[in-house]
Amino acid sequence: MRPENYQSVSQPPSNEFELFYGPNHPGIEGNYALKVRVHGDEVTSARADGGYLHRGFEKLMEGRLWIQNIALVPRICVPDPVPMEVCYSLAVEELGGIEVPLRAQWIRVMQLELSRIAAHLFFFGGHAATTGMYTPMFWGITDRDLILDLFEELSGGRVYHIYNIPGGVRRDLPPGYLERVSKTLDYLESRLPDYDNLLFTNKVFVHRATGIGAMTQEQALEWGVTGPNLRATGLAFDVRRDDPYLVYDQLDFDIPVEAAGDAWARSLVRRSELKESLRILRQVVAKLPHIGGAIRAPIPNPLAWNLPAGDVYTRVESSKGELAYYVVSNGGDKPYRVHVRGPSAMHAVQVLEHLATGARIEDVAQIMFSLDACPPEVDR
Amino acid sequence: MKLAASPPNNVSASLEFLLQEIPGLRTKWAGPRRLRVDLPAETLPALLELLKGRAGYVHLSAISCVDWPTQNEFELVYHLWSYELNVLVMAHIRIPRDPGVYLSVYDLYHPAAFFERDIHEMFGLYFEGSPDMGKFILTEWDGPPPMRKEFDSEAWVMNQFEWQDYRPDWLAEIEAKGGGITTRPQDIRKDGKP
Questions:
Q1: CA distance readout (Å), A121 to A203, A230, B18
Q2: Which of A51, A315, A378 sits opposite B138 (nearest CB)?
Q3: Inter-chain residue contact B79 with A244, CB threshold 8 Å
Q4: What is the distance between the alpha carbons of residues A138 and A140, in angstroms, rounded to a whole number?
Q5: A237 vs B contacts (CB less than 8 Å)
Q6: Contact of B131 with B109, CB cutoff 8 Å
């Protein structure tokens, strides 16, 4: 709120206080606020307050060419930008009836999984930091940087790659790239026991995270929870397996689940997913050298490219949950309407409000981070 | 493995059989796991109840709104997913732009609260019975709903802000010496590329 719009209100005498988590708070990956009312140290009600990162992407995209929007979409989620590019590209390809070459599909899977690992490393660090442990934060960010190095080599950008375009990917892998990916995977795999020792079997963390922000599977389904947060309540659903896209149906991976539905379970699910992503990447690295051919399908002149009228709903599994794009074309050279359905739109608003109510002050930050919400997905 | 054009016959047949209960409904398979449904606006609650109660459609993935000013209509699309059938149903309805009021489906699907609030804020469409139609993202915005097609962001910016030519003295001094953000001939590479 702008200062000139603030008006003080006199409240009746009460033992309740209003506390503001955010809009600048390390408990969430971006600018986002949670207003809580507390009685003693117990939260009696919570209200999410978004809009601090609203940049009007959906409106901006209506005014730009199909190809130009590729530079906009990764900005909708900073920690995990690749699913945004891929999901938008899949929608445009489906509208235009473009068949993506096999090699490009495998490269996309590699990128998606690298991005998932980077996002999960970011998550562990942040979640640990909300329980007062700062070393995992430094470790997570340092190891994430190795993946950003790989992205930089591939696309020129560390965070926003703008590498996937409708029809395929922008350029082929540099020479020796897969060996370097392999080396990074070796290193990350060797780090897993260290992470277990530091965090996941650490009694301080286990005690701090167990039973915090717990929800049952019924509640999760009622509130629209998806992704790792849903799998932490025991439902083995993954868009990659159950609504497959790209070449995920040719890959061998498990879907880790936990039963407890609390912050600890959410953390454990992501830890197991890290392992599964490494497993997928090993298969991709082994397979890619044997897949030749083009890296993108020929598309018409992108500056004068009219897509047939129609609408399409594409979904991918991002590190946060179910990410979907609803794209409508009216036969023009620009999207008529793009609706971004970010998983955090559920997690950071109603799920967070429900879970924070009844919690204690010291647990609110942990509940916020354990849902791994990405505020720009809410604000768009 | 090549995906089939539609889900296994028993799934698609049973789903289409179930949907026959709703009058005035048209179905079309838009992909292997995408069923497009067009129906009159007044029968949507009945469809949602049917899908949730008898086909396991417990997940409301999103509600999308599309503005069609030439037809003076809003199109609402309800994307529903069944964890049992693994088929997405996209229910399309059209409602008049004026007065722009529709029913909330919050009592069936709690995620609707967020999407309805968002559509209300961005398109000015009111949902009766939604738990909160207050502002969320555009807290201090008092202009027209910005996602409507007639709202021109560029015209609004031109009208709202004064453009200033940013040429401070220090930059003029640097430019006088041949610096600044201009490209000098000696900076151009030999192959002619910048």
A1: 20, 19, 45
A2: A51
A3: no
A4: 6
A5: 83
A6: no
For A48-65, the pLDDT digits (tens) are 888 888 888 999 999 888
Does any domain span residue B152? no
In this structure, is residue B103 part of a structural domain?
A: yes
d(CA B44, CA B67): 19
User: Where do runs of H (alpha helix) occur along B68-152?
Assistant: 112-123
Mutate to test the interface with A, among B110, B121, B123, B154 (most CBs of A within 10 A): B110
> Which domain range does residue B41 map to?
9-140
Percent of residues, chain A, with pLDDT higher than 90: 45
Asked whether residue B131 is domain-assigned, the answer is yes
pLDDT at A150 over 60: yes
A11-379: what CATH class?
mainly alpha
> Which among B60, B62, B138 is the nearest to A339, CB-wise?
B62
Q: What is the pLDDT of residue B5?
A: 47
Predicted confidence (pLDDT) per residue in A113-131, tens digit: 999 999 999 888 888 888 8
Number of structural domains (chain B) is 1
Which residues of chain B have a pLDDT value below 50?
1-5, 194
Question: How are beta strands B73-81 and B59-68 bridged, if at all?
Answer: antiparallel
Quick check: is B148 in a domain? no
CATH number of the domain encompassing residue B20: 3.30.460.80
CA distance A360 to A213: 10
- Chain B residues touching residue A311 (CB < 8 angstroms): 66, 77
The pLDDT score that the predictor gives to residue B2 is: 40
- Which of B81, B84, B119, B157 to substitute to test the interface with A, most A CBs within 10 Å? B81
CB contact under 8 A, B137 and A94: no
Using a CB-CB cut-off of 8 Å, the residues of chain A touching B153 are 56, 59-60, 63
Q: What is the DSSP string of A10-54?
A: PPPS-SEEEEEE-SS-TTSSSS-EEEEEEETTEEEEEEEE--TT-
Residue of A99, A217, A242, A311 best to disrupt the B interface, most CBs of B under 10 A: A311
Q: Cβ contact (<8 Å) for A313 and B90?
A: yes
pLDDT in the model for residue B48 = 92
| Cβ contact, residue pair A250, B30, below 8 Å | no
Closest by Cβ to A328, choosing from B33, B58, B66:
B66
CB-based contact A56 B146, cutoff 8 Å: yes
Beta-carbon contacts of B147 under 8 Å, excluding residues fewer than 6 positions away, are A58, A59, B65, B67, B122, B123
pLDDT 10s digits, B142-182: 888 999 999 988 888 888 888 777 778 888 888 888 776 65
Q: Is the pLDDT assigned to residue A31 strictly greater than 50?
A: yes
State the DSSP code for B105. Answer: -
Burial label, A37 (beta-carbon count in 10 A; 0-12, 13-18, 19+): middle
Contact B139 A1 (CB under 8 A): yes
B138 to chain A, any CB pair closer than 8 A? The answer is yes
Instruction: Supply the pLDDT for residue A339.
Output: 94
* Structure tokens belonging to residue B173: 């001094």
